[in-house]
Design brief:
The structure holds 2 protein chains of 2 kinds. Chain A contains 11 helices and 2 strands, in the order αββαααααααααα. Chain A is an all-alpha fold. The chains are: A mainly alpha, B alpha/beta. Chains A and B meet through helix 3, helix 5, helix 6, helix 10 and helix 11 of A and helix 1, helix 5 and helix 12 of B.
């Protein structure tokens, strides 16, 4: 028993180190101009990268706002469509159900670049290229599979027993769904929402090609520095990326907890 | 739940409302009108419009200059809003070809930063607007329109489909504190590499910089004249460059990772050099190392140098998309970019070699260029340009890149 605990502790530490150490190095790079081998510590520090990013605060705030807005919309739509799809797949039998399951996971199998190039011409014909809603639809296609997977599993695990119980006790279909199923599914909804949000927020190529550079998201500003090898500037952007994502995920969780406690969790009362 | 739904709906509405304003207002004048306009009329037509400028966005100094110097200047002088879109040229061309295929008339791409084989393929596929360069006053007044730097792009005739933006020339970079003896030809380079095994390499082709390094080695060993009118036939090219291929293969065992693999990009090599992992670096931007020395990325003892027989130089250009929604605005912006004031400022701030012809400038304009301090580690401009070799024809470049992959890597 004790040996097992030591092992799991060591594994956990190793796992945390693998994730945290590169993040620490990245934070050092924010202030580093030159860090040559074999020194353990940077030779030249500078605030150049921070200054250059701060210099763009106004522009960055706008880009961040639109980026977060796009990703929130994608996440909300993913959860909405994902929940309906999941319920259809789990609770109902209809012709073509297998095909529906297959097609929802298709975007995971087709590489983004291939998909983006193929869909670009269609988007232009439909007038969806270089527009915010076009980008949202494109992101949606890639975040939906995750939402559908998570929500299908959640719906399957929950089953229909409790909802049927509520119906037997006289609740309407909508009421039973709202008061019983939704609160119980909240953790899964949160997971699906967060996952869809992250998929959308970190999307680069799709936004680039279908947004045509006119729809500006955070990755559109960040990736050129990663590709251009400007390590300190790229580190500043990555730190902002991490901070914003982290804060928003915490916020989602807080909101979900609160809603579980106050909104619908009182079906025993 | 209601709150959540309301939040989601609110998000959606805000987004949908903001969609309407996303698109650049196109110029109401049709293409035919632009073709007939005088430059004054173009300025008039472009007033209040937005011009998008697509190009590589990995150079923060250049980005800032475009945003903080050039864009305000355009706004103030011509009431044109410049919108810089950072995008690699492959993606720009793929987006452009998508738009053109779909029949988009009011395209999102106006100005493009381009040169070499990308220009050739874009022009041959009808993706560029032109000829336009000779309609611009700056082009006529300040640029030596007959020089091969301006009429040819990688030996491919430009015919007015591009206007010059800046000049580039390959230089080698090393830290004289680490390696006091710098190699000035391929023989010395062989010795240099043997003296520093595992600490020299070059970016894997088809990286621009890796590609020009290999062409420079070819020039040093095989001479350059024979390539200027060579057919892009693989057998012919291979026979001509065989001595250089043999040289590169002999170099391999002493290179980084024993030449089995090469770093994927010039930026990777650049970072490896800054980190002290490599002792030799190379760049197309002859004066950019100076900026890096000032920033502290490179040591103060870093020095740029050339082969005695010279290094390859080329010009990079601005073009206009065939389906640009604002051709008049793009031409006004391109014209402004070629003015002596702007070129001098680019030379001073970005250390980009100017495209204007010094002899065509007034004394005051000349003074602006003369006043520029090139800074530590740089080669004086007259010396650099005296050892400037022309690029090969654009079609030879991919052929050589292919041969390098087959005959040099890991051999």
């Amino acid at each position: 028993m004790r040996r097992k605990r030591i092992w799991s502790g060591a594994l956990l530490t190793a796992g945390a180190a693998v994730i945290l150490l590169p993040m620490l190095v990245m934070l050092v790079w924010v202030f580093t101009e030159r860090w040559a081998w074999p020194a353990l510590w940077p030779q030249t520090f500078s605030l150049r990268a921070v200054r250059e990013v701060l210099h763009r605060t106004g522009q960055l705030a706008g880009v961040l706002a639109s980026s977060v807005g796009i990703s929130l919309a994608v996440a909300a739509l993913s959860v909405l469509i994902g929940l309906m799809t999941a319920r259809a797949i789990v609770l109902y039998d209809f012709p073509g159900r297998g095909a529906a399951v297959f097609f929802t996971s298709l975007p995971l199998m087709v590489p983004v670049t291939v998909f983006a190039m193929g869909v670009q011409v269609t988007f232009i014909r439909l007038g969806l290229n270089n527009t915010v809603h076009g980008v949202i639809i494109a992101h949606l296609l890639y975040s939906l599979p995750y939402a559908v997977y998570l929500l299908t599993d959640g719906t399957r695990a929950l089953g229909v027993g409790l909802e049927e119980q509520a119906r037997v006790l006289g609740a309407s279909g909508l009421c039973a769904f709202r008061k019983v199923t939704l609160p119980l599914l909240t953790p899964v909804l949160l997971a699906a929402f967060s996952m869809a949000y992250i998929v959308s927020f970190s999307q680069y190529f799709l936004t680039l090609l279908l947004g045509g550079g006119q729809v500006k998201t955070f990755t559109m500003v960040m990736v050129p520095y990663l590709q251009g090898g400007e390590r300190n500037i790229a580190s500043v952007y990555s730190a902002i990326f991490l901070a914003v994502t982290f804060l928003l995920l915490v916020l989602f969780e807080k909101l979900a907890r609160r809603w579980m406690r106050h909104g619908g969790g009182n079906f025993y009362g | 739940m209601k709150k959540l739904m309301a939040l989601a709906l609110a998000c959606l509405m805000v987004l949908l409302a903001s969609c309407g304003g996303g698109k650049t207002a196109g110029d109401p004048l049709a293409d035919k009108d632009v073709a007939d306009m005088s430059f004054e009329e173009m300025k008039q037509a472009a007033r209040g419009t937005t011009v998008t400028f697509y190009g590589w966005g990995g150079d923060e100094l250049l980005n800032q200059w475009l945003d903080d110097v050039f864009a305000p200047r355009m706004k103030e002088k011509y009431d044109i809003t410049m919108e810089r879109v950072p995008m690699d040229i492959d993606q720009v061309l793929s987006q452009l070809s998508g738009e053109i295929q779909a029949g988009e008339q009011d395209g999102s791409i106006d100005m493009i930063w381009i040169n070499g084989e990308n220009f050739q393929s874009a022009k041959e596929n009808g993706m560029l607007y032109g000829p336009f360069a000779d309609r611009l006053p700056s082009f006529q007044d300040y640029i030596d329109v007959s020089s091969e730097d301006v009429t040819l792009d990688f030996a491919y005739p430009i015919e007015g489909y591009e206007a010059p933006y800046g000049k580039a020339q390959m230089v080698l970079i090393a830290d004289t504190a680490v390696t006091p003896d710098l190699p000035h030809d391929t023989d010395e380079l062989m010795q240099f590499v043997k003296d520093h095994p595992g600490k020299v390499t070059y970016p894997a082709l088809p990286d621009f910089t890796g590609s020009v390094f290999v062409r420079n080695v070819i020039y040093d060993i095989c001479g350059y004249e024979q390539f200027l009118d060579m057919e892009p036939d693989k057998q012919t090219v291979k026979a001509a460059i065989e001595p250089a291929l043999e040289y590169l293969r002999q170099l391999n065992p002493y290179l980084w990772n024993e030449g089995r693999t090469f770093p994927e990009s010039s930026t990777a090599v650049d970072n490896m050099f800054a980190d002290g992992e490599l002792v030799l670096n190379m760049t197309y931007e002859a004066y950019s190392p100076t900026v890096k020395i000032e920033n502290g990325t490179y040591t103060p003892t870093t020095q740029t140098f050339q082969f005695d027989k010279g290094t390859i130089g080329n010009t990079n250009f601005m073009a206009i998309a065939a389906n640009s929604g604002n051709k008049a605005g793009a031409m006004v912006a391109i014209n402004e970019m070629m003015t002596p004031e702007v070129q001098a400022d680019r030379y001073r701030v970005l250390k980009v070699l100017p495209v204007v012809d010094y002899e065509k400038l007034s004394d005051g304009q000349k003074a602006a260029f003369d006043a520029v301090e090139l800074g530590a580690g740089s080669i004086p401009q007259d010396e650099l340009l005296a050892k400037r070799l022309p690029e090969m024809p654009a079609e030879l470049v991919p052929v050589i890149e292919q041969i390098w992959l087959e005959e040099v890597v890991g051999k």
